[in-house]
Specification:
The chain is mainly alpha-helical. The chain has helices at 4-14, 18-38, 42-51, 67-75, 80-88, 100-120, 131-139, 149-159, 163-175, 178-181. Helix 6 (100-120) packs across helix 8 (149-159) and helix 7 (131-139) crosses helix 9. The radius of gyration is 16 Å and the shape is globular. The termini are far apart.
């Protein structure tokens, strides 16, 4: 199986946009947190989060994403469990989320993006971010309007966690890697 370093190099080759890189890092951080929480393989879960949108910058259409990325990853020897999870994170592929890895990736993807948006409008970014603040922003349909609230709610449900607990886990995972995400409070 390719190593994490291989995955990171591949991610950087395919993803030039700083925003897309940060999204990959955010999903990776949350997935690593969940791997530890559930007692799963942290490296596999990290790589799945990091690479889930591998092809999105070059192939953003539903006809190509995530199919192109999965084909590339398969050729490079990444495990089928990862590839199935990546296919399953996009509902339109029709790929069932049969594994905990697949359910976690789906649950984390939209929420990590939403939490990033919430952090950007706070002076302290991720520092001190609460579940209550995220819930309040979720109710504001105009805020981060492109983020699917339905996917966030369904993701928590598929993981079998109350929404508040799921939000707390994703915040914790992202806070642990806030510097890498560019979401630390500015220092004066």
């Amino acid at each position: 199986m390719p190593t994490y370093e291989d995955a990171l190099k591949l991610f950087h080759e395919w993803t030039q946009s700083e925003n897309l890189r940060r999204h990959g890092y955010a999903v990776e951080a949350a997935m690593a947190h969940y791997a530890r929480h559930f007692g799963e393989d942290e490296t596999l879960w990290r790589m799945t989060g990091l690479l889930h949108d591998l092809d999105y910058e070059r192939h953003p259409t539903p006809e190509e994403h995530p199919y192109v990325g999965v084909r590339v990853l398969r050729e490079l020897g990444y495990p089928e469990e990862m590839l199935e999870a990546i296919l399953g994170h996009a509902d339109y592929t029709g790929t069932p989320r049969r594994t905990l890895l697949a359910r976690a990736l789906f649950a984390v993807d939209e929420l990590a993006g939403f939490i990033t948006a919430v952090a950007y409008v706070r002076p302290t970014r991720l520092e001190g971010l609460t579940v209550k603040s995220v819930r309040k922003k979720l109710k504001d349909k105009a805020f981060a309007a492109g983020v699917s609230r339905e996917d966030i709610y369904r993701g928590a449900e598929e993981l079998g966690l109350p929404l508040e607990e799921h939000i707390a886990h994703v915040i914790a995972g992202m806070q642990a890697e806030a510097e890498r995400l560019g979401l630390t409070a500015p220092r004066t």
